[in-house]
Amino acid sequence: MAEEQTSLIGSIARLQDRSAYEALWWEGTFEDYLQIIRRRPEVTRNAFQRIYDMIVSRGTEEYIDSKKKIMRYRFFSDDVAAKDAVYGLDIPLQRLVHVLKAASQAYGPEKRVILLHGPVGSSKSTIVRLLKKGLEAYSLTEEGALYTFEWRIPKEDGTVETFPCPMHEEPLRLIPQEWREQVIKDLGLGNDRCAVYVEGDLCPACRHIFKEQMTKGRGDWAKVAELVRVRRLLLAEKDRVGIGTFQPKDEKNQDSTELTGDINYRKIAEYGSDSDPRAFNFDGEFNISNRGVIEFIEILKLDVAFLYDLLGATQEHVIKPKKFAQTDIDEVIIGHTNEAEYRKLLNNEFMEALRDRTIKIDVPYITKLGEEVKIYKKDFNQERIRGTHIAPHTLQMAAMWAVLTRLEDPKKANLNVLQKLKLYDGKVLPGYTQDTVKELRKETAREGMDGISPRYVQDKISNALVADAEGCLNPFMVLNELEKGLRHHSLITSEDQRKRYGELIGVVKREYEEIVKNEVQRAISADVDAIKKLCMNYIDNVKAYLLKERVRDRYTGQDMEPDERLMRAIEEKIDIPESRKDDFRREIMNFIGALAVDGKEFEYDTNDRLRRALELKLFEDQKDSIKLTSLVSSVIDRETQDKIEVVKARMKNDLGYCEICATDVLTFVASIFARGDAKG
After folding, report:
1. Tens-place pLDDT, residues 329-354
2. Domain ranges, ordered by start, for the chain
3. Which of 238, 413, 588, 659 is 20 to 30 A from 96, comparing alpha carbons?
4. CB < 8 Å & 24+ apart, contacts of 143-146
């Protein structure tokens, strides 16, 4: 039995990487640490430098959106635990990283509170959580290594008393401030890539021990340095090392000692006085967050009593523990708040000092459909939702409604809010360019700061999943849940707002009808090769028409006049009148030319309007072979049933439908055809 137990324990132990463990728990002398600094001066970085380097180390990606260069930091979107990945907020995140970069170079923002401000559910706390988790992981890597120290004091009985630095300070603080610049220069610490510059003094406890040992050693600093053991510092929120979180509570049950520490009454008997720093617990959130980051949840709900500690920590990088001198800290202070609390701050003259020391970064809701969909795919996908199929477009329609509630109505008379959503999402609409999108964004006042939170949508998708008895969740189920929930939504404050959100549900339902009509028509005319040939034929004829040339027949090789009948048969499918045909044809050729300039190849589905026209033309040619309207009748002949099964198979294989939702969609579209509303 013992052998079996040893074998089982051994199989678990083999999973451990002992060499990695030894690297993480390294310890050595102060001399050893100086040698490490010579090789890798970045171990002495301050908190702002480390957190900025951590973000950049995960890579960046530059892209163009509406003629504006935007940097995407993969740190926020390629989260190890994908549940915390942040989507669609590249511009606010870029602003945040710029603040951290300026702070890392001591340009001023290091003396400010970073305040993330936005509506509820806009990912403010998720961003901070990513920074905290990332810092934990970064401290485990060679690039993110940092070090602290502990005292090993010999006692008269021959034992050694160990006293770890309670604030996990940088070991170079053991060098007196007046020597540091000369020491760094003489020892050659730092290089062109990373300078070594250490600010601040030891914490009260280490300063007390330092002075005591200097007295015992008759002022011999080298002897004092021999009492120091340097060790690797691993940041961990759960261990309260380098990462702290402060959340306002009832003011009667909370005082400033939660931020700056308190007296340890048990140790007063040992050390003889409550003013001995060794009898003090340096375990306030500011203390334990030293070398890392502190998060203030709902920072503007702080009682004024805490304000003084926060202002000192921000501007001067010092805190004032009870009965001790001001103590230096090195940490990033980041808070988040919602709009209601921020408006109170603006109207509170007592908080003027905090406003002056705050860098506000707006974190709005997502206004890009594709990015919003990613949020719901994280939680609702076929890997996580077992036993229930999620019909195509279900999450897309929920996301579409959420984004529509956040958009302001466009001021252009000929543009509706759904078209605006599509333009924001990168879709091509006739008559609109990237400059249009820039104008649309500029004309808004609060776009993205109001509307429906992703949390509400996630809750209603969950409700629809629980209520689903058929094993397939479709868009109408989710949209109905979203609409029902509006009656009891606690954050909808006016009847006009509730009415507008309800009307937008109708807009989304009509858009979904168009989508499924297109898909059914595409499934009926699903011969991709036939569409491609039709597209090439159309483009050849348009090119010849505009250049006033003849077109060569691909089969006979003869030169012929452009086929006007073919071109008009396609163009009429998307309501291009005779008077506008030349404009449309030039638009298509210009579109192809613009793609070529960007090194992209034109395909039949690159231009959404042309793709739709081609599919409708092919559908028109083939629809007589299948009577879809027969689906709503009680009797279907065998031949029609076989053709419907073929269409259904295409929908399942090519578009992701299951048997249930494919049948439902075909029946739904058939009812539209039966009403005579077949036009796309």
Report:
1. 999 999 999 887 888 777 777 678 88
2. 369-522, 525-622
3. 238
4. 143/42, 143/53, 143/57, 144/50, 144/53, 144/54, 144/57, 145/40, 145/43, 145/232, 146/43, 146/45, 146/50, 146/170, 146/232, 146/233, 146/235, 146/291
